[in-house]
Amino acid sequence: MTTASRKGARTSRKTLDAYALAVRDFVPWAQASGVQLLRPGRRDGGRYLATLQQRPSQGKGKTGRLSAATVAQYVAGARALYRALRWAGATEAQPFDGAFVPADPTPGIVKNPPYMREIDAVLPLCEPRLAALLLLCAHAGLRVNEALGVRQGDLHGHTLTVHGKGGKVRRVPLGARVRAALHDVPPVTADGRYFAWDYGQACYRMKKAFAQAGLAWRGFHAARKHSGTRLYAATRDFTRVGLFLGHASVDTTRRYVAVAEDDVSAEVEGF
């Protein structure tokens, strides 16, 4: 399978893993459902979507069925499979062209809100290297894979060069707290990286620290949302927050910022 996205950017390892999971689900379903993989019917994509929408969630979620986001992820993986098959010249089929995945009615910022007070509660329970990783995500706004890839040579005074999603490079200003945390942990790899952990190892360590603090671990993305929410509160500018987080679209940035319901109370007082 080609690792390039439709826009030409290199697909991340995490996305490829999600696609692989979806393909491992779709192919057995197709075999059991009488679908010829290289010659599927026009409605077979819709049949698979309907199956996913009725599938039990194994105790997770309020509805007892797979969430809309999970369904969308599986369908995206199956679509990617057929893109790869068409690229390889194995088929011209596009069984998912008419398969519409309804949007999740619950905003992501509500389902997985940013950590707020949790960050300062957990930091004292983290050893220095783990604390540096958490601060890179929660204060510098890095994706966890970006943070795990930070090298000593990426630091330039108060600025960090970040090698981000899709091969994009951006420069991120580092606050005093993040700079001090990185200063306290020497690089641990021959190429100057501060972290030798993979994603699973980093999650395991962070989850333990959150458990020690008596807090629920909701992943590194909630830490990234922490930085977006705090920066928006300081700037009131989604564009600047989006540049800081490395988003190509401000629409994406809006999904990372928790805005208080009374955010404009002062502004409308004099209307």
Summarize the structure in short.
The chain has 271 residues and is mainly α. Helices cover 48% and strands 4% of the residues.
Structure report:
With 271 residues, this protein is mostly helical. 48% of the residues lie in helices and 4% in strands. The protein is built from 13 helices and 3 strands, in the order αααααααβββαααααα. Strands 1-2-3 form a 3-stranded antiparallel β-sheet. A hairpin with a 5-residue loop joins β2 (159-163) and β3 (169-173). α1 crosses α3 and α10 (221-235) runs antiparallel to α11. The model has no long low-confidence stretch (mean pLDDT 90).
CATH C-level name of the largest domain = Mainly Alpha
- Quote the beta fraction: under 5%
Number of domains as seen in the coordinates: 2
Discrete helix count: 13
The residue ranges in which pLDDT falls below 50 over 5 or more consecutive positions are: none
Please name the defining characteristics of this protein.
Integrase_catalytic; 13 helices; DNA recombination; DNA binding; hpI Integrase, Chain A; 271 residues; single chain; mainly alpha; 2 domains; three-stranded antiparallel sheet; DNA polymerase, domain 1; DNA integration
